[in-house]
Design goal:
Length: about 90
Amino acid sequence: MAADEKAVALAGQSLSGATGELAAPRKRSASSTAARTLGLRAVSIAAMTFVWWLLTFFYPPSLIPLPSSTFNEVVSIMTSGQFFAEMGATLRRV
């Protein structure tokens, strides 16, 4: 077997011990996969919020409001009981 063929055969697999035998790839546990997925989602949301915050330095608040202002407005709408009225108004515009 040529060196290139060995490299292709070894891709995605690991050698076990000093014998150089191929070992089966490790499988992740369900909790590990769930934690990784949750972590990636949290980091994605944080990154998008950070980019949104950065954009507020270059555009006026009437075009791109601060994330904190938007969050505060959502909280006030939810606590005032106007959520469904506001959602209906938004959906009528779309």
